[in-house]
Design goal:
Two copies of one chain form a homodimer.
Chain A lengths: L28 H14 L2 H11 L5 E3 H4 L7 H13 L3 E6 L2 E6 L1 H11 L10
Antiparallel strand pairs in A: 1-3, 2-3
Chain A binds a DNA duplex (30 and 30 nucleotides) through helix 4.
Chain lengths: ~130, ~130
DNA sequence: GCTCGGTTTCGATAACTGTCGAAACCAAGA
DNA sequence: TCTTGGTTTCGACAGTTATCGAAACCGAGC
């Protein structure tokens, strides 16, 4: 590994063919291994809020300089959480001038949402 | 605490009014604090598979005796993971005769799915 | 009541995570 | 080039988690 110059976005098979809901078929171990890290990344209140702030930001992107002061945490700690979201493939980072902007990657989010989809009890047809 | 007789199902505000998608409004800290533990519970490959096996089981319920041998892990370890899902409010457990059956709680799952919903790029109207 | 099979709890241990301050890095401007 | 402000990385520490074997628990059946 030749020092990938920071801000790398690891993407866990971002564009894989989308998965049927969790409740329809037993998901294979490989799929679980790929998707669990994304849920794990969302499994922290700070990261969940960060994700929401980024995804709901006007223009679809949020500056770290806006994210950091929204929490009672140090800069390094916020950076650490953002890195976790990045490595989970949930967000992308881009540096422009002095600031770094984060943007949500809807692909994986959509895949997770589909996985959790539960058939409506009324329209269910097992 | 007077020994709650095992198999307690802690439910994190299961029937709270459902939340708008993560990408539409910045979610408040309280909501994040309530929902993050559920994502965290799904953030482990074993638990994700367990959840899938339970939710997709015929009749909507799965016996621990069927779940345990599906993994190369000890009984106590599987029980530990099931407890995590229980405490996250994702599943319910019921003992019938000698066996314990697990059943998915669709309410919270639906809430999580809604939270992750991303508006389709085509039909988006920001 | 005693035993037995299934399941959970307990106690221990190794590995991981969240947090911080210090240091390094990077782009902009003086 | 030097400084400055924004961001990430490093190193450390406390708290949490995954895993196991042993022990306890709980119904069923003898």
């Amino acid at each position: 590994m030749s020092k990938p110059a920071a801000l790398t976005t690891v993407e866990p098979d971002q564009d894989a063919p989308c998965c049927p809901p969790l409740a329809e078929n037993r998901i294979p171990a490989e799929t679980a291994a790929v998707l669990a890290p994304a849920f794990k990344a969302l499994g922290d209140p700070i990261r969940l809020q960060l994700m929401s702030m980024i995804a709901s930001a006007p223009g679809g992107e949020a500056c770290v300089c806006d994210l950091t002061p929204a929490f009672d945490l140090s800069g390094p700690t916020i950076s650490h959480h953002l890195k976790a979201l990045r490595e989970a493939g949930l967000v992308d980072a881009e540096r422009r001038a002095s600031w770094v902007y984060y943007r949500a990657r809807p692909g994986l989010m959509r895949r997770l949402a589909t996985l959790l989809t539960v058939s409506d009890p009324d329209t269910a047809q097992h």
